[in-house]
Amino acid sequence: MGQKIKIAGWISVGVLAGALTTVSLQTLARGGMTPLPLEEIQQLSAVFGLIKTDYVEPVSDKKLITDAISGMVSSLDPHSQYFDKKSYKEFKEGTSGKFVGVGIEITMEDGLIKIVSPIEGSPAFRAGLKTGDLITKIDDTAVKGLSLNDAVKRMRGEPNTKVRLNILRKDESRSFPVTITREEIKTQSVKGKVIEPGYAWIRLSQFQERTVDDFVRKVEEIYKQDPKLKGLVLDLRNDPGGLLDAAVAISAAFLPPDVTVVSTNGQLAESKSTYKASPEFYAQRGSGDPLQRLPAALKKLPLVVLVNEGSASASEIVAGALQDHKRATIMGSQSFGKGSVQTVRPLGPDTALKLTTARYYTPSGKSIQAKGIVPDLMVDETAEGNLYAALGMREADLEKHLSSGQGTEVKNEALEKAREEARKRLEEEAKKPISERRLPEFGTDKDFQLQQALNQLKGQPVKISKTLTERKTEEKSEDSAGSDKKSDDKKPTDKK
Q1: Closest CA to 305 of 231, 208, 245
Q2: Is residue 114 within 8 Å of 106, Cβ to Cβ?
């Protein structure tokens, strides 16, 4: 019996080696690279065979091969990833702005799920759920102790299936159940309003397939409400990014035609490109240019862009382009620094590989990677200061992060000290009532950074941070100066 298991194991090894050979040949045909090293392939095959024959309990071929692929990809950088069937589906939902669920934006509060906002027209909206409602149970599962992700997964499901939520409505001092039928939800990545006569605020929470159309509709609404607009605040705080073509389009909405928005550089020829403020770089095939509907006045409208340490990738592309072309004043705190391009390569109908293929560069040739966008005006998140920003993670803090390619990384020794001080402040704040310790919601009259942005547009004094400074993670060297020029000359881009 044992001999049969060993034979079966080594047959599986043969299958694995054959699969790897196929990948190797495909790689050769694609990029002219040298074949994979035979000795390392033999070691991998040997480990595969030993696990199949000697491990304490049987392990499927599929699991071993999938885990080997995942390990190989995850060793590269924090953003390269192997998508199995489930994670690939979730990824596509995230970029499309569509999912099946009840239609609410949520957050955690005291271990319960708090509804930030029901999405207009969604099943939750029609069921009468309100901002501030607390969810205490999902079907028969108590929410207390669940993570936010676990709660989201339980509320999502297949179309036309039902989920029962127990709701606690504090302002009415009552608790009640509601049964909601799941359906496809289209998320809103764009919010906006006229803050006061002459001044408007538009917030992008993510760059999705529908973001550009939603942005155009929101601008049209604002101009209809106030045709004599004097200034606009574009809010990209905590925007993690998304689709590159959406970022190029939002930049093009404010920039002159055909100027450079962003460039990329990588090994592949397709990774060495320049994206410009032109429809051919952002308009979806057959759908025309949605920016044609925008008021002409938008091109000259005074503009402030808000960013913080949660602004990453596509939002950094927009901020960097508008900053380099001197089209907007960038305010807030230094952005995340995710300046790398990920390309998704399908491996089959249900699986794919998300691989880092290039670095992003602003129009002036500066790498965003592990550096981020440094605001023109540093502004704290509250009137009391930037109390907890040091606790936020940036690209440069991630293990195995890609360097910018434009300098030698240096250790930021002051950062850990700042984090320790922020942790102590957070512990003290946690003892206060929730209403006193929670940061104000973006877009409200208590939003300190937004108020400073409005002051900037009006030509009034702005309260500049006394504590925020540029967080430098790299220093230039003579060798890196040559690297800068090389990257700039090649005018690197991406397909996503």
Answers
A1: 231
A2: yes
Q: Which residues contact 108 (CB under 8 A, 6 or more apart)?
A: 114, 148
CB atoms inside a 10 Å sphere around CB 421? 13
- DSSP alpha helix (H) spans, 127-209: 148-155
pTM, 2 dp: 0.71
Report the Cα 262 to chain-centroid distance in Å.
17
- Residue 415's pLDDT is 52
Quick check: helix, strand or coil at residue 480?
helix
Which of 330, 367, 392 minimizes the C-alpha distance to 483?
A: 367
Lowest mean pLDDT, pick from 30-39, 97-106, 265-274, 302-311: 30-39
Catalytic residues: 313, 324, 338
Following DSSP, what letter does each residue of 93-105 receive, concatenated? HHHHTEEEE--EE
pLDDT in tens, 180-199: 999 988 777 899 999 999 99
Distance separating alpha carbons of residues 61 and 53, to the nearest angstrom: 12
Nearest to 19 by CA among 346, 347, 343, 267: 347
pLDDT of residue 105: 77
CA distance linking residue 446 with residue 463, whole number of Å? 15
SS3 253: coil
pLDDT for residue 378 is more than 50: yes
Answer for the pair 322, 251: CB distance below 8 angstroms, yes or no.
yes
